[in-house]
Amino acid sequence: MPETETEHPDHNAMRTGWGRALIFVYGVFVVAATGRSVVQIATDFGKAPLAYVLSALAAVLYIVATVCLLRGGRTAWRVASVSVVVEAVGVIGIGALSYAVTSLFPDKTIWSHFGQGYGYVPLVLPFFGIAWLRHTRAAV
Hints:
- It is a single chain.
- This protein is an all-alpha fold.
- It has 4 helices and no strands.
């Protein structure tokens, strides 16, 4: 019987060692970004619609990255790679935009001011994700 993608022993590489810590941090940001965006959209969407939608996008990217890191395998590795690169571009772009065009961000989001409200972890997290995915590329 041929091995399926999830049965291959090397597919656990993404969730071992430092990968476990990375998955944990991504999981924390799933809760933080999802919770924040849901509350912001539900209670005061008219105040900062662009900022709140971008917060929800961040939450989706955190969810995708976390699930893919947990799942392992070639396809999950590829999807996680795209997700963390988009996350890196997003946090840098939105972080810069939140300083340059403050009127677009009248309320804070997870990526505004480069994740200042979260100790700048959103700024460095995707780069740790990229480094980990590069490290595990040969195993998947």
